[in-house]
Design a protein that fits this description.
- This protein starts with 9 loop residues before the first helix and ends with a helix.
- The protein has 257 residues and is mainly beta.
- The protein has one domain.
- The chain has a 15-stranded mixed sheet with strand order 8-7-6-5-4-3-2-1-15-14-13-12-11-10-9.
Length: 257
């Protein structure tokens, strides 16, 4: 069974392949985030499992007075349709997570709030709970400077400093497992990759220390964008489909302000 996550849920799905583990957290300084890379934009990705296209994921990111809102729409076959809305503050930290949709005709409904050092709310996630409508009350304490492994994490990393061999430490909350992990994000080098949207010179980043390893490829051209994400242990990938004309106009307008 494939499990959703930061891809509005596809990666959340695959977390079920690992048992929940009690990872020890540490105290880390906040990440250095350059907001000039976090712009309003529309993005479309294709999702591949074992090299086969299994769905699509669309992002709609907009500026708000107090931060950003990132909407994600996931479609996988006829059985999985999901919408997520994530609000971030001006430091690019998640403040609220809302998910809704259906998984094999079973409703998905997640409402979480992250503030005052904890995450609270309700989770009805049939992907995480064995294809049932079981509800779970969430009330989990968070260490200082904790980030959320949701769909907005793909946006957050675009604003981080990039140089080969740079290592960034962070505490990350994983909504599907309701666990906090001490993780490391390493810029392992540069790589030219080709996806449906074209060929790009990218920074390659590896995230380790949580329930599964991830590799991200970010464009070097400003503003950065996520070109590809790979989850090798699960044989899952997401690739940028296109850079729309509307997105280019939105980014130019943002840079001129």
């Amino acid at each position: 069974m494939i499990r959703h996550s930061l891809l509005v849920g596809i990666i959340w799905t695959l977390s079920s392949l690992w048992p929940a583990m009690a990872w020890q957290t540490e105290t880390f300084p906040p990440l250095e985030v350059d907001s000039e890379h976090l712009l309003a934009r529309l993005e479309s990705y294709r999702l591949l499992y074992r090299g086969q296209i299994v769905g699509c994921l669309d992002y709609d990111t907009r500026k708000e007075d107090n931060g950003l809102v990132r909407k994600a729409y996931l479609t996988k076959g006829q059985n999985i349709k999901e919408r997520s809305v994530i609000h971030l503050n001006q430091q690019a930290k998640t403040t609220t997570i809302t998910r809704s949709g259906n998984y094999n005709a079973t409703p998905i409904k997640v409402d979480l709030v992250m503030k005052n050092g904890k995450v609270t709310g309700q989770s009805q996630d049939p992907v995480s709970h064995g294809n049932t409508a079981q509800k779970q009350a969430i009330n989990t304490k968070l260490p200082t400077n904790t980030y959320s492994l949701d769909d907005a994490f793909h946006l957050l990393i675009q604003g981080l400093p990039m140089e080969t061999d740079r290592v960034m430490k962070l505490n990350a909350y994983d909504p599907p497992t309701n666990q906090v992990y001490a993780m490391s994000l390493t810029v392992t080098g540069e790589e030219k990759i080709t996806v449906p949207a074209g060929s790009f010179q990218t920074w390659r980043l590896v995230l380790e220390g949580g329930p599964y390893k991830r590799t991200y490829y970010l464009s070097q051209q400003k503003p950065r964008r996520l070109i590809k994400a790979s989850f090798p242990d699960m044989r899952l990938e997401m690739e940028l489909m296109e850079i729309s004309y509307v997105t280019v106009i939105m980014e130019i307008a943002a840079q001129q302000k």
